[in-house]
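Course assignment 3, question 2. Fill in each field.
Student: A.L.
Task: Predict the tertiary structure for the chain below.
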Amino acid sequence: MSDVKHMKWWGWGNEGVGFHWQDKPGFAPFVLQAVGLDLHAATPAEMPSFGKMKVAKSAASPALLSKLATIVGEGHVTTDDMERVVHVYGKSLRDLVRIREGLVQRYVDVVVYPADEAEVQKVVDAAVAADAVLIPFGGGSNIAGSLEPRADEKRVVISLDMGRMREVVDIDEESGLARIQAGAQGPDLEEQLNAKGWTIGHFPDSFTHSTIGGWVATRSSGMQSDKYGDISDIARGMRVVRPGGTLVIRANPSVSNGPSVREMVLGSEGRLGVITEVTAQVHRIPEKRDVYAYFFPNWEAGIAAMQEIAESDAAPTITRISDAPETGFSLATSKERHGFDKFAAGTVLPTLMRSKGWKLDDICLSFIGYEGEASHAQRQKKLVDAIVKKHGGMGVGKGPGVLYDQKKFDTPYLRDFLLDRGAAGDVSETAMPWSKVNQVHDNVSAAAHKAYDELGIKGWIMSHMSHSYHSGACLYFTFAFVFGDDPLGEYDHVKSAIQQAFVDNGSSISHHHGVGVEHAPWLEQDISSEGVKILSGVFQATDPGGNLNPRKILADPGVPTSGPGTTRKAGAASAAPVAKKATRASTAKKKVTAG
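Answer field:
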């Protein structure tokens, strides 16, 4: 069987790795205040048991399985129950609730692991000939519903796992262009590049468990996009297997060859074919890399500074600022300090802030990174420091930045921690012009709190500005609450309010998570009815049989495509009640386990 490694079937990341709160003295009080969950009294769910899963029998015929085995080898075709569960969903909160509660209505029927592009071509052609559905699978980290089969799908569903195709094929050292197989996960490809002195510079939150093909398929963005760009800037060339042939986009720096087919592939989520190779712009490993922390007296001052940095001659790698609620969360997740460090952070710094007239409940934490030759990095920091000072901020050194670097990929584990205790923790992100950043920030937060009030629950929302552009920025929202009687229904209500607030305030439905089925209901409001017609025409013309990851990005005909409460009306198991009630504060006992 394939040696491809996957995340655990019931949650994020690797087995045995998780979030721990006992060494973070501020965390339990913070959670109690934020959502009313008493961690000292909450009973964590038992480890989900795969033995309790009731996996439907595969619908793949012996003839199709034999055909696929002939293509990739018998050891790389499987109908194993565990493999089919791993490949049925991504890792959204909705996905994990459905997995744990046994609410999967349609499993994939077979998982196939091709070794090269020629095998991918044969699998695609065989799938179309058999009128099967083909869903490409990278690392399985998607949280927009881009991987799931439809509940009413009658055809055989094939999950095409690209994990065996994970090599850096070649590096054009003169041009800084690397050919990388689409199934290469972040750590693998970066290790191969680093060994030759290069880096891709693309580090999304999902970096440790996502692939370059997945990054392209969802238009991913990384933490260092201020310098290296989003994946749409990094991915210069592509190879995409389609029924009957392979689409080749050559890696030229800029072209004028009609409407951009390259742009069509970016964000296509498997609907135009299977991405097999990406030619990425790579960079020499920088001589110096530092991340510094800064504090601002309030959100408005911090955002004004971020905007001026984006418009200035400064070229930092990272510009990120958390609002006051997220700053409070970040401080609450700090480990216990000792000695002078404790004195400086707990006494000296608050005293200094108060002396400046700052209100400690309003302060905002920022991280700004610098890379390059030592003299270049020093100059960037000097330019940024002057802007920070102009807007009333102050630097606090590299110490917090080192911790940020160490923990930057660990946040998704916190969602599983909350889920184990009957609470939701999820994210939504959006992009907007600078002129609308504060409006979107305030109105989205207000919409979430209104949704909590309508449900009669205590909820939390926080955000940070994660990516800067000359004309605007991305805001990344995190929201949390304790489940009641209807976990997915309650989740839909809050998530819908947030997504609707995005479009009502002129921002995008997503910045880098993709559309899938999760955000499809708002697509028409985002790109207009004519935009939907164009996409529909493209998908119909390029995949008339609907074999390539059908019904992603665009909702079904006749299904409402926008508005509160429609998030999953086009999807499967939209809000199936879970017959266990979450209680809050000291009596929190809700468990979300395998059904």
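Instructor remarks: DSSP finds 19 helices and 18 strands in the chain. The two ends are 28 Å apart (CA to CA).
Grade: pending
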